[in-house]
Each structure stands twice: as C-alpha cells, then as structure tokens.
Amino acid sequence: MAGGSAAELILFIAAIVIAASVAGTLTSEVDRVSDAISAKSLDVSAEIRADAEIVSDPGAPVYNRSGDENVTIHVRNTGVSDLPAESGTFDVLLDGEYQTDLTVSVVDGGDTWHRGDVVKLEFAAPDLPAGDHRLKLVVRGDEEVFRFRT
C-alpha cells in the first residue's frame, strides 16, 4: 500500500509541475499578444491623427503655373494633430516616380501645419508629357490620389 501512495504522490507532483509550466507559457503568450495589440493601436492612433486631403482642382492647371515646369498642389490638414510643414512630412509619387526636393509652405504663413490649414506643395517636373497624370501623396500613412491633365 505504501508503494501505491508513493506512485500517486509522484504522479500528482508531475501533474502540478506540468500544469504550472503550461500556465506560465500561456501567461507569457498572452502578454506578448497584449503588447503587440498595444503597439499596433499606437500606430493606428498616429495614422488617424494624421489625415490630409488634396484640395487642388484637377480641372485647373497644376503644372507649369509659374512657368518653371513644376507641379503645384494644395493640401489641407484634416487630421486632429498639427504636423511640421516640411518636405519630410510628405511622400509624393508622380506617375509612379518618387519626387524629391519638395517645397512646402503654409498658405497662411508659419512653420506648423495646423488642423484646417492648407499647405502648398511644389516640385520640379521638367518635360512632363501632355496627357493624364496620377499623383499619389502619403502623409504619415494616409494616402491620397490626385489625377490631373496637362
């Protein structure tokens, strides 16, 4: 009889050890999932705060307005946060080609692009052929597409 209770005690201890290790593994996995959800929610929150709309009229000339063979568009900050009015805030693709050397200026003046303010974006586009063109603007994850004709 003593041998039977010793075997039961060993099995009981083994079951407790296995249950504790399973519980520990589940707890650590739940913590990892929770951390991943928190990080993703912060990213989504930043994207929601940054929102922009292209307010230029596609029927009006946006190319070569000043005679310098450049593209000029106007963009309104419709998000809930202020953004810096600098070229690093924007990613611009014209007909699939990434544009550098953006000139950014707040229409009402200032260095900060406040909610409701409009900025003027200008960049050189020499020898842009006549026809239909597609401009893609990305502001902190928010994407806008603008089609115009030259």
From TrEMBL:
**From what superkingdom does this record's organism come?**
Archaea
Could you tell me which Pfam families the record lists for this protein? Flagellin_arch-type
Q: GO biological process: any one?
A: archaeal or bacterial-type flagellum-dependent cell motility
What GO terms are given for molecular function? Answer: structural molecule activity
Any idea which UniProt keywords this protein has? Cell projection, Cilium, Flagellum
Tell me what this protein is called: Flagellar protein FlaG
Native source species? Halobaculum gomorrense
